[in-house]
Amino acid sequence: MRIVIEIKRDAIPHIILNQLFKHTAMQSTFGTIMLSLVNGVPRVLNLKQMLHYFLEHRHEVVVRRTEFELRKAREREHILEGLKIAVDNIDETIAIIRDSDTTQEAGERLRERFTLSERQSDAILNMRLARLTGLEIEQLEAELAEVRATIADLQEILASQERRFTIIKDELAEVADRYGDERRTQVLGDTSNLSIEDLIADEEMVITVSHTGYIKRIPVDTYRNQARGGRGIAGMGTKEEDWVEHLFLASTHDYLMFTVTGSATGSRCTRSRWARVRAAASRWSTCSTWTTTSGLRRWCRCGNFRRTDI
Q1: What pTM does this model have?
Q2: Which of 52, 121, 170, 268 is least surrounded by CB atoms within 10 angstroms?
C-alpha cells in the first residue's frame, strides 16, 4: 500500500514530515533489551557480545553437524566394505548361503569366514542379485570411493577451525543472497525528541508591541513596498490610550529578550497572535504585568506567540 499526501503550495515539506513523525505512527521509536541465555544464564549483552555468542553457536552447529555426517558416512563405508568383500568373493559367498539351512546360519557362517560384522552380513543377505552385474559392481566401487573422500573431508573440517569459520561465512552469505532484500525502513539513533523548531516553519515575522503590553506578529510578506503617493498599512489596531511602542523583525525560531531589572520569563514567538494587519493584538498572558514604563523586562522566543489566519 502506498499513501500520497498532497500539501498546499505554501507549505514546507520537511515541517509537514516532522509533524507526521511526531503525531502519527509513521515513525516508531522503541527500546531494545538484548537479553540472552549464555550457558543457561540470562545476560544482557551489547552488540559485540551478541555477535560473539552467535558465532560461537554457529560454530557449535557446524561441529555437531559435521560429527553427525561423519558418523553416517563411516556407517555407510562399513556396509559398502562388507558388500565389496562379498562381491570380490561372490562364488564362495553364494556357496555359503546355499549350504545354510536358515538365514541366521548363513549370517553366522559369513561373519566367521570373512570376519564381518552383523550389519555387514545382514546387508549381504539382503543384497539383490542385480547388484552382481558388472555395472552395479562398478557403481559400488565408485560409491565406496566417494564415501571415503567425504570422510576425509569431514575429518579435515573437524581438525581445522579456520575451515569451520569459512563454512560459517559461506552459509551466512548464502542466506543473505537467498532471502536478503533492500531495507524498507531505516534504523537510526534516538530521534524521538523533536524540538519545536522541527515543527515550526522558519519564517520572518514583524513583531509589534503596544505600550500596555499587547503583542502580535505578522508575516513580513504582508507588507509591500510603498510607491510615491501610496497608502501604507496599519500594523496594529490599538485601544484608546494605547499605541505601538515597539516594532521589529524576528524569525519564528528566534528568542526575544526584554529585561531591565534582571527578572525574566520565557516563551516562544509563535504564541503571539498572527492577526490581520489592522486587528488588535492579544495580551501576552505570561507577561500581563509587562509594560515599558514599569521597568520590568521579559524575554520570549519568537516562535511561541499564538498565530491566526491573516
Answers
A1: 0.56
A2: 170
